Amino acid sequence: MTTVTEQQALPKHVAIIMDGNGRWAESKGKHRVFGHKHGVKSLRKAISFANEKKIEVLTIYAFSSENWKRPEKEVNMLMELFFTVLGSEVKKLHKHNIKLKIIGDISGFSERLQKKVQQAEALTQANDGLVLNVAANYGGRWDITHATKKLTRMVLQGDLTIDEITEDKINNTISLGELPAVDLMIRTGGDHRISNFLLWQLAYAELYFCDVLWPDFNGDAFQDALDVFAGKERRFGQTSEQVAPR
Questions:
Q1: Which residues are identified as catalytic?
Q2: Cα(199)–Cα(75) distance, rounded to whole angstroms?
Q3: Mean per-residue pLDDT over the chain, rounded
């Protein structure tokens, strides 16, 4: 059981870049699809772990807007895997009171997949447990551009003035604006970059990079990231003296 002190040291919002599926499969002499399928198992474990730890929000990078550049065969497989996982997993999420939200430009998906997304979100909409955001056909630059277009339309329609466009206004217009800010971003696979993920939302997040390939990511690896986070002094531009407990 998590104590009050432990709970206070936990991030409210964790974002994960699930990297390394393809390399994991290739290291075992398998096709990349083998790694993606095993990556789904790691995702189940991560969701279960976050739920048990009572983390409020988990956001995962499932398919970036740049992933369309991958070989057509792999992209088609990822789309089918996404469709299959949505169908098989959403009832389990609902059973555990998890709310599912897909962020990104879903208009780029097939009508069949768009319908599946809408059904999955509708089923879990009233749940008030862990919020699971799945970034699909998502890019941080797209997100900021999309929010900018919304605000521009409001100005042109006379519903907003230019001076009323503030950081808070942008934050409330961009994806995840209604949720706690990202506290911790985890990237598996060894690369030290954020790859156009949540560019606005990661402004004050702690960034944690590990060499573990995503199919090998488990509760112990997740806990390692949380332990590092718990040891961080989060000042948000202030001094150590200002944020020290009194």
A1: 19, 67
A2: 24
A3: 91
